[in-house]
Amino acid sequence: MQSSVGVCSSSSSNWLFRFSAAAAPLLPSSLTFPISKSSSSSLITLSTPSLISSPLRSTASASAADSSHLTEMASNDAQDPRLPRISSAIRVIPDFPKPGIMFQDITTLLLDTKAFKDTIDLFVERYRDQNISVVAGVEARGFIFGPPIALAIGAKFVPMRKPNKLPGEVISEEYSLEYGTDKMEMHVGAVQAGDRALVIDDLIATGGTLCAAIKLLERVGAQVVECACVIELPELKGREKLTGKPLFVLVKGA
Ligand SMILES: O=P(O)(O)OC[C@H]1O[C@H](OP(=O)(O)OP(=O)(O)O)[C@H](O)[C@@H]1O
Ligand SMILES: Nc1ncnc2[nH]cnc12
């Protein structure tokens, strides 16, 4: 099938420069727990958990009528003590893969068995009763978080892959990057019209990647109930590009 360039385009590269804290985000208060970088080179340690709000509070912008109950759930939830550990388990590596980029490294979260389990549990607790039929995981790091969530909530897992990786017939969605475009692909037949989809990735920056995933799912008639990420970089305003789809995140990069 043909590729198409979606209306959701990201205006900057996937590798993102981090803005100063002075650049106040115009986003709705969606945050849960800020990741802060220690003075040492790579490992971050959270200084003070000065701003913890519930992960369930943090996310859903309630544009999709079908997801309004998720927003309601969020607003009623108390702070969750699991968030500081999750946040502090994420390492920030400056200048990777290019100078100026603060890389949010979730591999250290995977080494912390409690924090990793808590991460999965938080998503499972949110989605287990939402009648989700498909969890769509975005390559590559959405492949880490998506499958355990899918298994736990009884949904199928569908990989959303980079070009020319899937062997069967695919549909493709191009999306803009700062210099050029990238493409995401999904197997034809993996998702059916009427499926209720959750899109999972580790991180939202400009939102271009999640936008492409949403478009692929909607092209086959699925209903995207929500997007979920471990980390949001709010300064990049990716949330605003999600065509009204709710976004749920656990922590935000500072
Ligand atoms: O919100 P965006 O600006 O679209 O960026 C977010 C995407 O960037 C990273 O993946 P990347 O494209 O680096 O691929 P990888 O996981 O295969 O390294 C990240 O895991 C998200 O998928
Ligand atoms: N700062 C960042 N860290 C990790 N993955 C990213 N993808 C886009 N920006 C990123």
C-alpha Rg, in Å? 17 Å
Distance N to C terminus? 40 Å
Total number of beta strands:
10
Binned strand content = 15-25%
Low-confidence stretches: 1-14, 16-32, 36-76
Total discrete domains? 2
Helical segment tally? 7
Shape: globular
Strand order of the largest sheet: 1-10-9-8-4-5
The percent range for helix content is 25-40%
The major sheet is characterized as: 6 strands, parallel
Structural class: alpha/beta
CATH architecture of the largest domain: 3-Layer(aba) Sandwich
The ligands bound in this entry are:
1-O-pyrophosphono-5-O-phosphono-alpha-D-ribofuranose, adenine
Overall mean pLDDT stands at 77
How are helices and strands ordered from N to C? EHHHEEHHEHEEEEHEE
The top-level CATH class of the largest domain is: Alpha Beta
CATH level 3 topology of the largest domain: Rossmann fold
Description:
This protein folds into two domains: 3-47; 61-252, Rossmann fold. The protein is built from seven helices and ten strands. It has helices spanning 55-58, 68-76, 82-89, 107-111, 113-127, 142-153, 208-219, and strands spanning 33-35, 91-94, 102-105, 134-138, 156-160, 170-177, 180-187, 196-204, 223-232, 247-253. Strands 1-10-9-8-4-5 form a six-stranded parallel beta sheet, with helices on both faces. Strands 2-3 form a two-stranded antiparallel ribbon. A two-stranded antiparallel ribbon has the order 6-7. Helix 6 links the parallel strand 4 and strand 5. Helix 3 crosses helix 5 and helix 5 packs across helix 6. The longest helix has 15 residues, at 113-127. It is globular, with a radius of gyration of 17 Å. Mean pLDDT is 77; it is low at 1-14, 16-32 and 36-76. Bound molecules: 1-O-pyrophosphono-5-O-phosphono-alpha-D-ribofuranose and adenine. Adenine binds at residues 14-16, 101-104, 203, 205. Pathway: Purine metabolism; AMP biosynthesis via salvage pathway; AMP from adenine: step 1/1.
